[in-house]
């Protein structure tokens, strides 16, 4: 499998190897998804200062799709000018997550997300796999998660870019408060 480097690798860590490792670990669990559609990967910043610096870096390498409050902290999503490549798999977007207030986070690549046609079918076909199914019935953007040695894989029914487009259209994006970064 050909793994290509990416201009952001020196800043975020080797992204294509991360994606490839996650897909290898998924295959080792005998979870096969066809076709493999990795719509994005996520990098979690350890501090708000790092988050703000990385927003500037990512803006030079992609187009900001949205920044909003999710789970009590800002998350920004970028459509990369040059997708991350792992063999035949192309990852078009990156999500940048700020740390949750009051929690300690290690900076680094955290998860990838795949689009699948059916979450119940995925779970039923792999009843021996410890999927996290707590969000499977979410009305807006249901998902199923799987913790692996290298990180987490989340499975969704639609790409993050589609969900963002809908949220922008319907006004569902919660803006980052204007004073959120005042005390850093």
Automatic annotation (TrEMBL):
Chain coiled-coil ranges: none
InterPro entries membership: DUF991_YecM-like, Glyas_Bleomycin-R_OHBP_Dase
Gene3D superfamilies: 2,3-Dihydroxybiphenyl 1,2-Dioxygenase, domain 1
Top-rank taxon, per record: Bacteria
Signal sequence, start to end: none
Entry-linked SUPFAM superfamilies: Glyoxalase/Bleomycin resistance protein/Dihydroxybiphenyl dioxygenase
Protein name, entry field: VOC family protein
């Amino acid at each position: 499998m050909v793994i290509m480097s990416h201009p952001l690798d020196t800043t975020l860590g080797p992204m294509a190897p991360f994606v490839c490792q996650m897909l290898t670990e998924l295959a080792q669990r005998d979870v096969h998804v066809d076709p493999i559609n990795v719509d994005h990967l996520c990098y979690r910043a350890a501090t708000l200062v790092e988050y703000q610096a990385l927003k500037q870096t990512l803006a030079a390498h992609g187009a900001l799709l949205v920044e909003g409050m999710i789970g009590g902290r800002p998350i920004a999503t970028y459509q990369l000018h040059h997708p991350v490549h792992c063999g035949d798999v192309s990852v078009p977007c990156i999500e940048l997550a700020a740390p949750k207030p009051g929690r300690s986070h290690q900076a680094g690549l955290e998860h990838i997300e795949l689009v699948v046609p059916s979450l119940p079918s995925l779970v039923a076909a792999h009843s021996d796999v410890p999927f996290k199914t707590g969000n499977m019935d979410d009305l807006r953007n249901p998902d199923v998660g799987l913790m692996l040695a290298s990180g987490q894989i989340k499975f969704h029914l639609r790409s993050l870019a589609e969900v963002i487009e809908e949220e922008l259209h319907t006004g569902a994006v919660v803006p980052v408060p204007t004073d959120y970064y005042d005390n850093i």
